[in-house]
Write a sequence for this structure.
């Protein structure tokens, strides 16, 4: 999976906004006004995604040097994924996990969160990370 394939997948998710709030060097993806993925244009081999803290540790142990604590982000909640070194399914799974985690835990007010969740459910996007990794 290259950066263009990854971008296409991310923007295919319902209600995703692509923006550059940190300037021309970073591309940010948001849902409900909240960031769930980001990459730096000088480092397009990796993307930062939000992750459940316990899951983040397991992934870092499983994919040593391919999934690492995210640079410039809270290392407890964010992973850098070197997506060209992982199977497409794993990358997409982690992007979906980030996307759904942000909707469920960070989007406010609750009415907006519920509205977004209804659109996501209707589109068929599911978090497959709820099973054991």
């Amino acid at each position: 999976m290259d950066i263009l394939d990854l971008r296409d997948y991310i923007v295919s998710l319902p209600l995703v906004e692509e923006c550059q709030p940190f300037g021309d060097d970073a591309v940010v993806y948001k849902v409900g006004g909240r960031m769930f993925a980001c990459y730096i244009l000088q480092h397009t081999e990796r993307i930062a995604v939000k992750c459940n803290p316990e899951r983040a540790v397991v992934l870092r142990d499983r994919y040593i040097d391919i999934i690492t604590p995210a640079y410039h982000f809270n290392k407890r909640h964010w992973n850098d994924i070197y997506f060209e070194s992982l199977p497409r399914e794993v990358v997409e799974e982690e992007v979906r996990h980030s996307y759904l985690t942000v909707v469920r835990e960070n989007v406010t007010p609750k009415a907006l969160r519920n509205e977004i969740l209804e659109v996501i459910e209707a589109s068929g996007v599911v978090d497959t990370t709820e099973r054991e990794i």
About this structure: The CA atoms of residues 12 and 110 lie 24 Å apart. The chain has a mean pLDDT of 93. The longest helix spans residues 88-106.
